[in-house]
Amino acid sequence: MDKADAIFMFCTGGNGHYTFKEPERIAVLKRAAARGAGLMFYHYCVEPPAESGHAEMLDWIGGYFEEWWSVNPTWTAEFKELPKHPHRAPNEKTFALSTECWCCRRALTWQAS
User: Fold this and answer.
1) Is 24 helix (H, G, I), strand (E, B) or coil?
2) Does an H or E element contain 78, and which?
3) How many other C-beta atoms can be found within 10 angstroms of the C-beta atom of residue 25?
4) Whole-structure pTM value
């Protein structure tokens, strides 16, 4: 980890968050961020425990999900008609996609200099 150019985190959030279970894990990511490694926290991983990790997440990735303040609505797009296109298979069926969007994350406030 001390030489990684990028670190991708995928774990549960809240009190089960892998990073904030042990101080050494926090120290590893602090060192990585300080030397300019890319950090990506995926899905539930953007939610630190309620009592810790907020300052670190703001510093590392610019924001975090906070339970009871942030929201994550879902949306389903229904494609009931498909346009004609030369590269689309003629027997292609209509379909629906569901997605979840995490909104109102706690984030850094930007000030004009």
Assistant:
1) helix
2) strand 74-79
3) 14
4) 0.69
Q: Which residue has the tokens 């089960």?
A: 16
Residues 19 and 22: their CA atoms lie apart, in Å, by 7
DSSP 29-76: HHHHHHTT-EEEEEGGGG---TTS-HHHHHHHHSEE--TTTSB--EEE
| Residue 86 located in a structural domain | yes
- Enclosing domain of residue 82: 6-107
Q: Is residue 113 part of a domain?
A: no
3 state DSSP class of 109: coil
What does each C-alpha distance from 41 to 6, 38, 79 come to in angstroms? Answer: 11, 10, 31
Asked if 8 and 18 count as a contact pair (C-beta separation under 8 A), the reply is: no
Residue 112 lies in a domain: no
Each residue of 64-104: pLDDT tens digit?
988 888 877 888 999 898 888 888 887 888 899 998 877 76
Domain count, the chain: 1
- Alpha-carbon distance 5 to 33, whole Å? 10
**Does residue 52 lie in a domain region?**
yes
